[in-house]
Amino acid sequence: MGTSHVIETGGSTLHGYFSRDYPPVLTVDPGDSVRFSTLDAFWFAGPYSGGSLDDRPRSEHHREGYGHALVGPIAIRGAEPGMVLEVRVDAVVPGPWGTTVAGGWPSVFNQRYGEVDEQTTQAWDLDAAALTGRNQYGHTVALRPFLGVMGMPPAEPGEHSTTPPRAYGGNLDCRELVAGSTLYLPVPVPGGLFSAGDGHAAQGDGEVSGTAIECPMERVELTIARTDRPGSLQGRP
């Protein structure tokens, strides 16, 4: 069994870009587990209570230009380019509220449905024990929580957007990465420098409206290991 670590979310542990230049907030051995909480992707400081999203308070750690609120980076001892990182999702527990936004910007789907100019926001009360969510209109959905962003920075220096998915992870938005699943990613930089965030309480096969049920995560637990090649895992507990 590996060692269990806790990251206290806030300050230097939060960032809104991927970068190989960011120093790790934690260094772990292969097979160690990490527990942390997350903000929602928008850095919101609390649940939606009406009005414009632009006027909604954000975390004090947010700064202009940031993308998704990510926790990390986490360095893995011995991880080098050419290896593969194994990230096992042990637990993903959503916080008490979530937000879904549809329309209001010129995405392909919004243009197709004529919803570029008008934005609709749904506020969700989330029950992590029952795994259900209820919006302000009384609609109830089943929750299947996961992290939309898990990944490592490009090898190129500088700050890189959290928006695109890349070969080494990022904004994957894969609804199958729930507790009990495992993600394999090629390591792009020494140490890996893994980060995660963008909690989704529930999502379809894609963010057709533009978002999922975006939410903070009360508790995330991941076990991280490395391998020289798939099927030859080093440090697996």
Automatic annotation (TrEMBL):
<dbReference type="InterPro" id="IPR004304">
    <property type="entry name" value="FmdA_AmdA"/>
</dbReference>
<protein>
    <submittedName>
        <fullName>Acetamidase/formamidase family protein</fullName>
    </submittedName>
</protein>
<dbReference type="Pfam" id="PF03069">
    <property type="entry name" value="FmdA_AmdA"/>
</dbReference>
